[in-house]
Specification:
The complex is a heterodimer. By secondary structure, chain A is mainly alpha-helical. Chain A is built from 24 helices and 2 strands. Helix content of chain B is about 25%, strand content about 35%. Classes of the chains: A mainly alpha, B alpha+beta. At the A-B interface, helix 9 and helix 10 of A face strand 6 and helix 2 of B.
Amino acid sequence: MGPGMDTLNAQIGASPAKTHKRAGWRTFLLWVLPVAFLLYFFYQPLAAIFKLVFSPGFKAGWQLFTPAAVARIFFFTFYQAALSTLLTLLVGLPAAYVFAKFDFPGRKGLNLLSLIPFILPTVVVASAFNTLMGPRGWINLGIMALFKLSDPPLKLLNSLPAVLLAHVFYNSSIVIRMVGSALGRLNPRLTEAARNLGASNRQAIKEITFPLLKPTVIGAALLVFLFDFTSFGVIMMLGGPRYATIEVEIYTQTMQRLNLPVAGLLTLIQLVFTLLLTFLYNRIKHPKYGKAAVSSEAQNLKKPRGFREKALIWVVAVVIVLLIAMPLLSLVSRSVFTLDAARGERGAVSTGFSLRYYQELFINRTGSLFYIPPIEAIRNSVSYSLATVLISTVIGVITSYALANPSMLSRHLEPFIMLPLGASAITLGLGYLIVFNRPPWNNPSFSLLIPIAHSLVALPLVIRVLLPAIRGIPSNLRQAASVLGANRVQVFLQVDLPILLRALLASIVFAFTISLGEFGAASFLASPLKPTIPVAIFRFISQPGALNYGQALAMSTILMLTCAAGTVLIGRIRLPGEELY
Amino acid sequence: MLSLRGIKKRYEGQWLLNGVELDVSEGELLCLLGESGSGKSTLLRITAGLEETEAGRVFWNCQDITDLQPNERCFGLMFQDYALFPHRTVAQNVAFGLRMKGLPRHEVEQKVTEALKTIHMASFADRQVTELSGGEQQRVALARALAPDPHLLMLDEPLGALDHTLRVSLIHELRRILHGSGKPAIYVTHDREEAFAIADRLAVLHEGHIMQTGAPELLFKKPVNAWLASFLGLGNLIKAMSAPPNTAAVTFGCFTFAESINLPEKSACVLLFRPRDLLINAQPLGAVNTFDAKVIDSVFMGDYWQVNLRVQGLDLEAHSGQSHPAGTSVTVTIPPEKIQVLPQ
């Protein structure tokens, strides 16, 4: 499986009866690779960004960028994130309540639909909204056809509402999932007890349900805020130049202005703020009475009764369909409809249903040096994703075993491991550009930096899937196996591996889909000749010409279906008691 | 007083409650006994208004309260898992019902202190309920249910979640508090000894309706049928064929009893032989009701020996003042007045 396997086998075979000295030595060995990996690929770039900010060149950077501009960008980032979070809660909370409490026809399908957005890459979401609201989207096309206009009348893109809408689309699934599951597991006896003690329905909600759910709601809101605050792809593609957030500004300063010191400063501001939010999130997430409020019974869904309950379900259903199904359907339908002529094509173009955009993915039509046929981007992405799977699985398995092993060393190293998990892909991208701008790292034909950055992005999820599975293996199973004569390797192969197989498979699918859809780091690191799918979509969708647009949509659709398939697969794998947040 | 009339409820298509009739009088402690899954808790929940009945009505003092909300009934319910509010302290839990009644703060505080004193937990007022042991939680739940002074108290397996030693010590305290409160109460349990220890009156719920109700002594002495005798663990139940007026045939002989039975000739019935009524190697009273059996083993139980017997493939239990060696043959006698004949 990888270079770390030997130490891993040594570790898991260690029986508790062995002396502390040897166990300590094994734990130490287990930590070597993850720590080295993080030091080199996370802390080194981070240090380089620090150094850059406080370097002499920084003054020159400031002349092009004032503190007032930094403050303005920070406040806009904060403002749009707060507004997005508020709207997300507004959509998510009623939906969570409806899914957790009521049984109605279509509940399962609607619930599934509401959870889809979370797994979609940002470029897919942005493309989907583009096909709905963009100048070449259905809404504008419809109005143009209706009133025989030659230009798109509505400028819905490059606006704050477009960004907010995409954020709500994206994150309401987090609220629905977190709050819905907490609500579904809330012991129904508690509100019944309150009712029995004389509380009206409203008083029971105010006195019991709401206080017990508050930590979950705040936790979900913080997480949504964190995602909105660090949102990059959505804002790049739907916000436009007027709506620069910190992440977008880091990209602009780096890639367009080449003002690395200012980009570095913005990165530090962003890092400090996200760490603060992550810290808050982890503090709030675990209320001490959590267990007592949870019921082990299957949740008891009731049929809606009365006008108010039925109306609530209808409103939620309509909002979810409009908000989530419509953009996705719009993307798929627009990708199979040819409506106007491609650039360079003359005369009448047959309009209507066609798979032309998909066929064109394989053809290099322009023949220009910097034009890359989409099939190339797909090939690049798949190889980067496979490399990501390899790296993240090896590092993830070793780190999880190290974390699962309770020792002083693990306790001290845990924050060190968890810190990178709060960092954004943009931070990684900038840091890598500074540190690894030299051979062999800047090899244009295959940049190892992309899978490494993707692995760091995927690592939190990989560890969150693997760690509970490893902790869940009863140590007496291993002891029984060794008493029955199995050596350390055999214990791992016969006991650990079969139990971990499902978790391992799930983490592999996670790593693959995350890498396939990742946009932020790739937009910094992918060489112009070797774009990934999301980078290519971003490039194609902003170019003129129906063909470019269509190909971007075709790629987005393929990406969407791949991610959806991955999620279905993970759902099938089904890990017991697993919580992904 | 409480009257349940024709209560019906389906569970997964089957009738769980099929026309239950039950009354609880002033100051009475009624014990609702039944196997797990017999619908005892559902009946409580319908009485409390937490579930709706599919047919029938609930009356309190002759007023129909079937359609009243749970908070409008003023019935206390103590849940099996206690359902203490985990985000509230002990005192806040007990105060909840008083606050909902809209009592002024000082009165709430005073009543909470009183309630905690009753259960000997005055010093626990500011503790989190999640820090309490099972027995302490049980007492807080009881105090919380009693504090708002409900018309009727319902307890759903209040000792079910506790271990045996704790149950034994708590049952007497529970009895003291419940009788001391003077309130009518319904106590749900599946444990026969618990029911006998606490009840003024027993009601046994089986197959959707109340099979028998009466004082514990009545049910013990005169169970209405074989199922009830078996459920109450009254002794050996032997299938028999009636031969009126006062005999019945079993596989190992014919038995005569003191009372004449009201059964047609050759109908199936069940004979109840209580273990302490089976006399081993006692002087036979004539030749009536005597049979030979083999001793399987004798187990010392403290006050008596439990002698396990086998007669023609049938296992019987007898209580004896002395041990009988395993493998020996003995003569067993049962006096005619000790045999009970039960319908199947």
